[in-house]
Amino acid sequence: MEHSFLLACFIFLSAAVIVVPFAKATGLGSVLGYLLAGIFIGPYGLKLVTDPETILHFSEFGVVMMLFLIGLELQVRELWSMRNKLFGLGLPQVLLTALVLGLIGYLANMPWQSAIIMGLGLALSSTAIVLKIIEERGIMATNTGRSAFSVLLLQDIAVIPILAIIPLLALPELAGHTPVDDGHGPGEVAPEGGWQVAAKTAFVFASMYLSGRYLLRPVLRFIAKSGVREIFTALSLLLVVASALLMEWINVSAALGAFMVGVILADSEYRHELESDIEPFKGLLLGLFFISVGMSIEFEVLMNNPLLIASMVAGLAIIKMAILWGLGMVFRFHIADRMLFAIILAQGGEFGFVLFQFATASGALLPEHADLLNVTVAISMVITPILILIYDRLLSPKMVRDAQTEREPDDISVRNRVIVLGYGRFGQIVTRLITAQGFEATLIDHDAEQIELVKRFDTKVFFGDARRADLLAAAGAHEAQILIIAIHNPNTVTEIAAMVKKHFPHITILARARDRNHAHELMDVGVKHFVRDTFHSGLQLGIKALVALGYEEHRAYRLAKTFARHDIKMLHEAYEIKDDMEAIIGHARTAKELLAQVMESDLVDLDPANATNWTSDKNPDDIERENKARSQE
Amino acid sequence: MANPVLFVIAHPDLGQSRANRHFAASAKSVEGVEVLDLYKVYPDMFVDGSHERHRVDNKSSIVLQFPIYWYAAPGLLKEWIDRTFSYGWAYGTNGKALKGKNFMLSVATGSEKRAYGKNGVHNHPLDAFLLPYKQTAAFCDMNWLDPLVYYHARASEKEELLAHGELLKSRLRELVALTAPQQREQEASHGA
């Protein structure tokens, strides 16, 4: 048992490790790599794994996690800003595609019920594949990325009503006959009556909303305070698993349940931490999912009906692309964007598998039809990365020139341009100044109590360990313009600065330095903008001290400015020689003397008493009289 | 209404200036005069325009006291005028806030009087250098009063300094007295 588990792990992991980097390097992309790996080790390849169904069910959890993550990303505000694309692009895409494909099925002598299901099932694209491609190409913030995502989101939402109407479409000849399902997935039809199901559903959604709103937050805070990192990870996974289980209990797609929990938590301060915790699991499980899609391609069905399947795949891709192309024209996408948008969504998706399975179980679809459709969907999923490859190599280079001149500006409002790490006494001052200008900043702190405290003042701070690149990525570091590191611990500041330089080289870093040595450390890792955290407040108090000693305000201020300029200059000079101990000591000595000179020269510059030429027409008597007058003062 | 006269002193090193310091002290001793030490209030030279407009709104006379640096006032006084005399307040549509106010300069120079003239090092009489202020007053419908000038400030005898201080005080008292009845009138008309 244990051996077979380890062996299975070994097979999957080595397939992924061997094939995926190779696919990536040759430009095939990771999705195609996973799919190919699946075909290699599957029942029609090396036969290393023979029950792809089990693996597929298991790895579908990767899709569940992905939807949880999408939910986390989607605040109501963002959702609202996407409403035009959601209903303008997404809804017509689903309806038109379902109509055209359904009509074709009906004309091909399918029962009308099955034709509807086929149309709807094939209209759905693969969230897993499309989002993976979008992520890999880094186009989430572009018009194409946002539009494709809107379509996917509407499709995911559409799954609910589709699942709801499938039982109503049961074929008369199959009515009453409910095949026994293996217990996984929504195929399990509940034996209760309608009102019981309704009550159960209402209860689950209500309790999910209430606990997400009121119970989860204190629990997350409690766990975060405990400081045991892996327990927070465990809790994140538990959340996803629990919501998936709950949904299965009421026969709703687990992915949708996870999505809803995600949305409920989207405005939580633990969002970015949850995101970066789930992310690696999602990545691996999705990979496993693609492998099992590759494995589950029924080459036997393909061999028996090669022409039919080929024309179904081609028809599916062409019809979907045509409709997407048309919608892209209505929305005035640039030709290069429009083509990518059409290609990227022109496949069947994992929800198709689920729908067809459920429809078969509900007696709305003949098993032989379901087999054909499943193979079609699986092959269309393999086709997409290949089409993308063709687009990249052959089509898009020809359009690049146009695209550069006409391309729509990236939607920078999607993410905040400013990220602030550390929302303590220092970070708060920096942030208040910036946000008062109308900028929105993403705030991250690791102190759960501090987060609670500032929440009372309506400030949203995300919980998380800012040393993690994945957390910063989740917080939008790829899109951010500046990153302010206002953390107290100087070692942490340097560590983060170095990490950000490496992973997000485009960001301008502004760092809080502790002292001169720390400033030098920051300069070592390439930070150009830093301020010693006590430097300016010390100067301010120095000004007040001089005033208290009888200096005039403006003079005190000017002296402090002179001092500051000198000190910053010395800091940079000392950096040049910082590895030479003798030079440092010598520099420190001359710096002290220099300071005295600088202060004096400032006095001379501005003291009008020295401008003797104003006082006289070069009359020596006047100068003498003036000096006398000065000495009296 | 308290303090009808605003006395603005602009000197970056008042402690080093015998004349200007004395005149500021003289102004302070006159009842009805508010003294604004610009470099003290705005040591960072960052003038709060709206605050200053409120300050001026209450006044019927403005007196500017400053040393002549390079044929003009020290930088902060220019900044104070730039920030305070804004569009829609000092000039432009509805910009009538300064209308009818008395406007007087009280300046100190380093050079002797003869340096300001055709044959002096500065080639022009001092009035020529005060022209921008005169025109500012005209543009904002203020009453331009003859400026008080204290030449050769650093080299002057103590008696001269004291005498000029008394002169300044009497001019300020006149302004206070001049504006007081007007205000009473205005307040009376407001009441009616």
What are the defining features of this structure?
heterodimer, A: 633 residues, mainly alpha, Na+/H+ antiporter like fold, Rossmann fold, 2 domains, six-stranded parallel β-sheet, 27 helices, elongated, disordered C terminus, B: 192 residues, alpha/beta, 6 helices, 15% strand, globular, RCK_N (chain A), transmembrane (chain A), potassium (chain A), membrane (chain A)
Brief characterization of the structure:
Chain B: It holds the Pfam family Flavodoxin_2. The complex is a heterodimer of chains A (633) and B (192). By secondary structure, chain A is mainly alpha-helical.
Describe the protein.
- The complex is a heterodimer of chains A (633) and B (192).
- Chain A has 27 helices and 6 strands.
- With 633 residues, chain A is mostly helical.
- Chain A folds into 2 domains: 2-406, Na+/H+ antiporter like fold; 417-533, Rossmann fold (3-Layer(aba) Sandwich).
- In chain A, strands 3-2-1-4-5-6 form a 6-stranded parallel β-sheet, with helices on both faces.
- In chain A, helix 3 (52-73) packs parallel to helix 11.
- The termini of chain A are far apart.
- Mean pLDDT of chain A is 80; it is low at 177-191, 401-414, 606-624 and 626-633.
- Chain B has 192 residues and is α/β, with parallel strands linked by helices.
- Chain B has one domain (5-191): Rossmann fold, CATH 3.40.50.
- The radius of gyration of chain B is 17 Å and the shape is globular.
- The two termini of chain B are 17 Å apart.
- In chain B, strands 1, 2, 3, 4, 5 and 6 form a 6-stranded parallel β-sheet that branches.
- Chain B contains 6 helices and 6 strands; from the N terminus they run βαβααβαβαββα.
- Chain B is 43% helix and 15% strand.
- The mean pLDDT of chain B is 90.
- The chains are: A mainly alpha (633), B alpha/beta (192).
- The A-B interface holds A 543, 552-558, 606-609, 611, 614-617, 622, 625-626, 629-630, 633 and B 12-18, 39-45, 67, 69, 76, 109-112, 114-115, 120-121, 152, 154-156.
- Chain B: Keywords: Oxidoreductase.
- Chain B: Residues 5-161 form the Flavodoxin-like fold domain.
- Chain B: This is NAD(P)H-dependent oxidoreductase.
